[in-house]
Design a protein that fits this description.
Keywords: Transferase. Helices cover 37% and strands 13% of the residues. The protein has 428 residues and is an alpha/beta fold. The protein has 2 domains: 2-217 and 344-404, Rossmann fold (3-Layer(aba) Sandwich); 246-327, formyl-coa transferase, domain 3, CATH 3.30.1540. The strands form 3 sheets. Strands 3-2-1-4-5-6 form a 6-stranded parallel sheet, sandwiched between helices.
Length: 428
C-alpha cells in the first residue's frame, strides 16, 4: 500500500489530480477520453479483460518487440486492472471500484453495461455523484442506438466522408480515426461540465457522446446551407468552395506550400509579395465574394508564381510580408522543426520495454496548472494487486483466489510490479 501511495503522489500533479476515473472502454473513443483526463492528472484506472486486454495493445503498423506503438500513447498515464466482466465476481469488483470513482468511461454497445448489472441507475444508487461517460456510435437512444457503430461509420453519417476527397473520385477518409477521437473529446468536455455541475448539486449524470454527433458538430454550416438555401456541400479537393486563395501551391523544388490569404487585407499583402500589388484592386479579386467566384483562375495565377521559387525562399518571402503559409508536414518534419522543439510539442517518455518513445505532448497548455505525461501505457494487469488492495482492501490470499478463478489476470506482483516510466522530456 505504501508503494501505491507513493505512485499516487508522483502522478498527482495535474489540475484533475483529485478525480478518479474508471475506464472500461477499449480501442479508441472511450480510451481517448481517458487519455485526455489522465494527461491533466486524473487517476485513470483502466479495467481490461484478463485474456488479452484492450485490442489496441495489438493495433498499429509497426510493432517493435511485438508491441503496439499506438497503445503507449492512448493508454499513457493510466493504470491497468484486469477483471473478467463476464463473471459475476468480476462485475461485483468493477461495481465496487466504480463506487470509489468520480467518473466512469465506457464505449461498449448500448445495453452491454446494463447486461452486466453496471447500468447508470444501478451505479448511481451506490454512488449518487457518479458521472458516467457513454461513448457509442449512435448514442444511447433512438432507432440506431443498438447498432454497431465504429468511427468510420460515424464519420460517414455525420457528414465528414461526403466532403472529403477529390470531386471526381469516391469519398476519401481522413488519415486519422478522427470520429472516435472527436467523440472521446466531447466525452471529456461533458465529464468536466458534469463535474462542475456536481460541485453545485452533489448529483452526477450521464454524458451521452455519439460518434456521428461529434462529427456533425464539426460540420460548420453544412446543414444550414441546405436547409435554408438548398446547397449541398460536396468534395472539393484541397480547397473549400468560395474561400480563396487558400490552397496548396507547388514550388520549384517539387514540394507544396499551404497559403491562406482569403481575407482582404491578407490578400493585399500576398499581392505585394508576388510583385503584383494591382491585383488587390482588380474587380475579379478585390473582395471575398469576387475571389470566390474566380477561385480556379486565381489559384492558377498563384500556382504559376509559386512554382518559380524554391520552398525555403518562398516561405521566407511570405513570412516577411505577413502572409500565413506553412509546409505540409509528415512525422520527420515535426521532429526536426525548431518551433516544435522550442514548445516541446513532442515529448519523449521512457517505456520499460520499448525504450524512449516520442509522442505528442499534452494539449491545451495551461499557464498555472499544466498537464504532464507521467508514464507510458501499463503492462496488462500490472496494477491489479496494488489498486484492488488499496481501494477495496483485498489481501494477498483473496487475490490468489481471484487469480486462480480467472477473475483477475495479468502478471503476478512479484513478477512485474507496477512501473513508472521516467519522464525524459518535460511536460507541457
Amino acid at each position: 500500500m505504501k508503494e501505491h501511495d507513493q505512485m499516487l503522489n508522483k502522478t498527482a500533479q495535474g489540475p484533475l489530480s483529485d478525480i478518479r476515473v474508471i475506464e472500461m472502454g477499449q480501442l479508441i473513443a472511450g480510451p481517448f477520453c481517458g487519455q485526455l483526463l489522465a494527461d491533466f492528472g486524473a487517476e485513470v484506472i483502466k479495467i481490461e479483460q484478463p485474456d488479452g486486454g484492450d485490442p489496441m495493445r495489438e493495433w498499429g503498423r509497426e510493432k517493435p518487440h511485438g508491441r503496439s506503438l499506438w497503445f503507449p500513447v492512448i493508454a499513457r498515464g493510466k493504470k491497468s486492472v484486469t477483471l473478467d466482466l463476464r463473471q459475476p465476481k468480476g462485475q461485483e469488483l468493477a461495481r465496487r471500484l466504480i463506487g470509489t470513482a468520480d467518473v466512469v468511461v465506457e464505449n461498449f454497445r448500448p445495453g452491454t453495461m446494463e447486461r452486466w448489472g453496471l447500468g447508470y441507475d444501478a451505479l448511481a444508487a451506490l454512488n449518487p455523484g457518479l458521472v458516467m461517460v457513454r461513448v457509442s456510435g449512435f448514442g444511447q437512444t433512438g432507432p440506431y442506438a443498438r447498432r454497431a457503430g465504429y468511427g468510420a461509420i460515424g464519420e460517414a453519417m455525420g457528414g465528414l466522408r461526403y466532403v472529403c476527397g477529390e470531386p471526381d473520385r469516391p469519398p476519401s477518409r481522413v488519415g486519422f480515426s478522427i470520429g472516435d477521437s472527436l467523440a472521446g473529446t466531447f466525452g471529456c468536455i461533458g465529464a468536466l461540465i458534469a463535474l462542475h455541475a456536481r460541485a453545485r448539486t452533489g448529483c452526477g449524470q450521464v454524458v451521452d457522446s455519439a460518434i456521428y454527433e461529434a462529427v456533425l458538430a464539426m460540420t460548420e454550416n453544412l446543414v444550414t446551407e441546405y436547409a435554408a438555401a438548398g446547397y449541398v456541400r460536396r468534395r472539393s479537393g484541397s480547397s473549400l468552395p468560395n474561400i480563396a486563395p487558400s490552397n496548396a501551391y507547388p514550388t520549384r523544388d517539387g514540394t507544396e506550400i499551404l497559403i491562406a490569404a482569403n481575407q482582404d487585407t491578407v490578400f493585399r499583402r500576398l499581392c505585394q509579395a508576388m510583385g503584383r500589388a494591382a491585383l488587390a484592386d482588380d474587380p475579379r479579386y478585390a473582395t471575398h465574394t469576387a475571389r470566390g467566384e474566380n477561385q480556379v483562375e486565381l489559384d492558377q495565377l498563384i500556382a504559376d508564381w509559386s512554382g518559380t521559387m524554391a520552398i525555403a525562399e518562398l516561405e521566407t518571402l511570405l513570412e516577411s510580408n505577413g502572409v500565413p503559409a506553412g509546409r505540409i508536414y509528415s512525422a520527420p518534419d515535426m521532429l526536426a522543426d525548431p518551433h516544435f522543439a522550442a514548445r516541446e510539442a513532442i515529448t519523449r517518455i521512457a517505456d520499460p520495454i520499448l525504450g524512449e518513445l516520442a509522442m505528442q505532448n499534452v494539449a491545451p497548455r495551461l499557464s498555472r496548472t499544466p498537464g504532464h505525461v507521467t508514464r507510458t501505457a501499463p503492462l496488462l494487469g500490472a496494477d491489479s494487486a496494488a489498486v484492488l488492495s488499496h481501494l477495496l482492501g483485498i489481501d494477498a490470499a483473496e487475490m490468489a483466489e481471484l487469480r486462480a478463478g480467472g477473475i483477475v489476470g495479468g502478471p503476478a506482483p512479484a513478477a512485474v510490479p507496477p512501473f513508472e516510466a521516467e519522464t525524459v522530456g518535460t511536460g507541457a
